[in-house]
Every structure is written in C-alpha cells, then in structure tokens.
Amino acid sequence: xxxxxxxxxxxxxxxxxxxxxxxxxxxxxxxxxxxxxxxxxxxxxxxxxxxxxxxxxxxxxxxxxxxxxxxxxxxxxxxxxxxxxxxxxxxxxxxxxxxxxxxxxxxxxxxxxxxxxxxxxxxxxxxxxxxxxxxxxxxxxxxxxxxxxxxxxxxxxxxxxxxxxxxxxxxxxxxxxxxxxxxxxxxxxxxxxxxxxxxxxxxxxxxxxxxxxxxxxxxxxxxxxxxxxxxxxxxxxxxxxxxxxxxxxxxxxxxxxxxxxxxxxxxxxxxxxxxxxxxxxxxxxxxxxxxxxxxxxxxxxxxxxxxxxxxxxxxxxxxxxxxxxxxxxxxxxxxxxxxxxxxxxxxxxxxxxxxxxxxxxxxxxxxxxxxxxxxxxxxxxxxxxxxxxxxxxxxxxxxxxxxxxxxxxxxxxxxxxxxxxxxxxxxxxxxxxxxxxxxxxxxxxxxxxxxxxxxxxxxxxxxxxxxxxxxxxxxxxxxxxxxxxxxxxxxxxxxxxxxxxxxxxxxxxxxxxxxxxxxxxxxxxxxxxxxxxxxxxxxxxxxxxxxxxxxxxxxxxxxxxxxxxxxxxxxxxxxxxxxxxxxxxxxxxxxxxxxxxxxxxxxxxxxxxxxxxxxxxxxxxxxxxxxxxxxxxxxxxxxxxxxxxxxxxxxxxxxxxxxxxxxxxxxxxxxxxxxxxxxxxxxxxxxxxxxxxxxxxxxxxxxxxxxxxxxxxxxxxxxxxxxxxxxxxxxxxxxxxx
Length: 738
Known about the structure:
It holds the Pfam family DENN. InterPro entries: cDENN_dom, dDENN_dom, DEN5A/B, DENN_C, Tripartite_DENN, uDENN_dom. This protein is 41% helix and 12% strand. The protein has 738 residues and is an alpha/beta fold. Strands 1, 2, 3, 4, 5 and 6 form a 6-stranded antiparallel β-sheet that branches. A 5-stranded mixed β-sheet has the order 10-11-9-12-13, with helices on one face. Helix 8 (293-300) crosses helix 10. The radius of gyration is 30 Å and the shape is globular.
C-alpha cells in the first residue's frame, strides 16, 4: 500500500464530476429487517484471542455467534450500509464492505438512557491498488430503537446472559446449596446484584439506543471542513426546530454543487447553519494536510514524536495503540505528512479492524493503528516479538522503541527549533499529559500577545526603525545616504496605523483558533522539510542516470545502480552517517530516486517538484561547493512566509459555492422528527444537476477567456509583467466572495 500524498484522480480527471468536493454520502446502522446479527468476524477475533492466550474457547460460541459471558450491550453486532449516494462513480467505485467496516469498525453499539451517548468523530483511508487514496470522515451518534422486535431480542439476550452467568457461579461452587448460600451471604449477593444492574436492560424501564453513522467520502483530506458539515447535519437532526431546508438539500449540494478548490485557492460552502471554509496549498507549497499536528504533539510530546518519526523513516514496524479511532488517524497522518519529500511505501492501516489482527504478525514494515479496549491492561497485549517494532501507546504518552536504531541528525538542535515553534503557539513541548499550571499560563500569555495583535505576531504595532527593518539592503542604504546629504531625515515610521487601515477591509473567514492550527501545521512541516532540504541539497550529484529511454530503464531497473551511495556517504558530516547509511537503503528513498530518474521522461512527481524548487532556492541564496558539507545546524527561514500564505487565503475567499436550495421532492418526503435521521429521498440524491452546474460552466468560461488573452499577449509581444496583469486566474472574478 502506498503512503502519503493526495489521490491524483481529481486533479487530472477531465469530467466535471471528477472535481467534486465529495464523492459519496453514506449512512450506516442497523437493518431493522435483519434484526440483531452477531458480527461473525468480531466473534472469530475473540475466538482467536482466546486461543492465543490459551483460554477456554467455550465462552465464545463461534457456531451461533453468541458470547454469553459478555453483557449483550457490550457485544458486537453486524452493521450495514443503509444507503449511499450516488450509487457508484466510475473512477472511484463504491466498496460497500470496506466502507461499512471502516465506518463502524466495532459494528453496532447499544446504549441505554444511563450511558454516555455523545457523538464521536473519526476518519479513515482507503488505499486503492494504484496507490491513490480515498478519505472517509464519519460522525457516529445514537438513535432510540423503536423496533419492538429488536428491543425484545435484546431483552431475551439478557435473560440468557443472566441465566448463563448464574449457572457459572453455581457450577464454580463445589459445595452444597447451604455453602453456596453462606458464600453469597459473605457479600457475593450484593456484588451479583450490582453486576446485574450494570450494563443491564429491562424493556419495561429502559430506553434502548443504537449507533448510526453518517459519512462523507472525499478525494482529498479536508478533515476540518467535513467534520463541521457532519456536525451541522447532526445538530439539525437533534434540534427542536426543523432545519431551514430538508437535509437532502444540503447533501445534494455538497455532493454535486461544491467543487474542489483549485491549488492555491480557498473555498466557502454552506452547511445547515453556517458556512464552512477550506483552503488548498498552491503548487509550490507543501501538499495538503488537514490533520492537526497540534494534537499529535500534545498526545505524544515532542521527544516521543521525533523518535517515532525516525522509526518511520527507517521503515520499521510501527504499531499505534489508542481507545480513540481519531487519535490513531491523527498521529498516523501527522507523522506521514512530515516525511516530505518522501512517502511511506509499505502497509498503511491507521485503523486496523479487530478481525485483521493477524496482520501484526506480518514480517514486513507497517504502520498500523489498533484500538485498545476500555479498561484493558496494556501488559496483557501480546505484541509480535520483532526487534524492529515501535509500540506507541498514545493514550498513556508512552513509546517502546526498537532495540537499536540511530538518532536523527542534529536531534538536539532539531528538537530545540520545533520547541520554539510550539511555545510560540502556547503548546508545551513535553505534551498535554505533562502540561503544568506554568505551561497553561504560558499558553494564555502567548495567545494574548500573538493572537490579539491581529498580525500573527509577525509585525510589532510599536513604532519601528525603518532602517533597522531593511538593514542589509544595499539599495536602501544608498537611498538613506542620499537622503542624509539632502537633509531629509529617515528615522521612524508608524506601521500600525497603515496596517490597521488595511485590516479593516479584510475579515478572517474562520475561527482564530482554526487559523492558528493551520499556521502551526505549516510551520512545523516547514521545519521538518527544511531538515531534508539541508541534508539532501546535493543529492542530484549522486543520481546515476545511464538509461537512454524509459523502457530500457524499467526493463533493467532491478539490476541497475541508481544512486552512488558510497560517494554520497563520504560527502556527509560524520555525525550524520549512522542515520543516513540506513535511510538510503529504505524503499521510500529508492522510490524518491526512481521518481527523479523518471522525471526526465515524464511529468515530475509533485512532491519532487516542490522539493527540487526548494533546493534551487538554497543554491541561489546560499552558494557553496557541494563538497563542503557541514553539520552546523541551519534553521528554517520560511516560517512567516508559509503562515502568511494561509492567512491571505482565509482573508479573502476565492470561490463561494452555490447555496443549498429546495429540490424537486415528492410531497411528504423529508419529514422532520427530532432525534432521528430521516429516510432520505433517493431519487433526488442519485444524480446531480444536468444544466445547473454553474461552477463548472463558469470555470470553463474563465479558462476560455484566459486562453484568448494568452494568445493575444503572444501576438502583440507583451512583456512578462504586463502579461501577469492581463492574465486571468483559473477562477473568474464572478466566483470570488464579496
């Protein structure tokens, strides 16, 4: 399975539908007609676990699928895809079994009125055979069970459970009934009654609830936007007042009328109650990553995360462990996005279904996530006895590292630079579990100083010396000398007034905390990317390109040496060698070099293109001989620029999607009933509009106008600067938000 990187399909598809923001809307839950069906895969997993631990398998009856030793409310029942819209997309076929398993990895969950029923959000990834990805975003909530058949079935299961439990208690006593009574008098009676009340269900007094999931499947990982949209759908279902429009209107809108934002642009579309914002990096920026690195660093701590990151780079076996599915995804996606310009090339399953636990015994590199059961002692988890296994207990802020592995180059300086970025955003480098009162005060202080100034902490509002600001610029120096000779004083100027006036015309289209998460994400990624840019600034000099054409190269790929490893290592600083000597043997580095060689015959890989551009900038601003390698740490110099790019995109929307609107629905459909997700009218959601896809037509019109202007510019021989003024962007002015 392939690692990071966005699926190539949406950007390359010629069909307008290939550019849609979302491909599918999915509803998973209980099939009232089928009733309660035990999840056979989960039961098989329990049987295998019992076998691995040498326990009796009688508790798990694999024939009937019942487990009388476990409370029925805690058993696993089979879920089903109740509906999905549209039915199928040619370039992204709907995989019902995979989506059902990943939307509800534990199957159906039941609760009563005494249990916690807060909705839970998680995401997942489906990697296709060609290495491209599809992303799923899921909100799971609980609905009251109205089927008397299912309620009666649950009551029956409890009666059988209690009878089995009483029988086991009775059988465990080798005494007579008198001795059993005496033992119960010693306190077992009270314990038994408490046990029966806990996780119990009585159809006459309890209300039964069952889990249901709503899901968006998208070509790109716009996690924050999808989460907001799904939460608004859920609020509309649970609100006392019906939503402004039937839910079909909002689902139809996001499926067929909301486009993917082009690279380097921002997009606003509408949920049930408020707009949703997303932005996409430009072609020269780091690729899209919407999972909050803040959470990954808070969960693991900086030191632990860098260690796990090093294990991933060296392609070891990485097992993530947490009760929370979304934590597994956040850490997995966070670490893999930091690999730029490299990509994880091996098994990547951030959420491993229980039925696939045997995958952990595979003798290959993998990055997998395993859900821990509530109350389970981690010491009882049997892990594969592999010397290169990195075990990451996310919930307990703990990692177990392989026996021997080299440290990341300049690790101390690297961690120090990352710490400075985290502290600037008020995040303790040691992680949230060790966050003391002092670090909380630090966070408040930083937020006050850096957020309230409305300038991202980049420019002080006090008067500043213009000469100090531009010191080192020879042109400014000459102008200042000329000004002094003519008697003109260049001292200080107040930037706060002018900047303040400018800010009045701009309005941030997202929450301040959301902007800061975006900026923290990109600044942390820039620090990681800068390390690779510095370490591999001269990698091209060691690439061996002997083939004359792509066909001969592909034919002899396995027998050819594509990279002069010995010469490269001899050119590196001594402290780097333990790490680099192992890293250049990995599959991710080999693929990186393969992509470089392939770029002479076909379009360059997007990640490689961005990386090579950064190397060119280093050569432009920091001229040095390739042989003069040094281990002196060079900090990242692009942090402010990267943060400002995101802020500018969120200050002015490049495109506003069509508002949700009434659809041609049948009378009586879309009926609102508080607390229940409605049965959607499938005919209006099966296909999109035929002649009403305005964003496609406007985009095509803008493209034609751009082409005409380009041809005209070439004809009259305009200079480059004037062409930039005349050239239209891919999205016309009519699409921009006011």
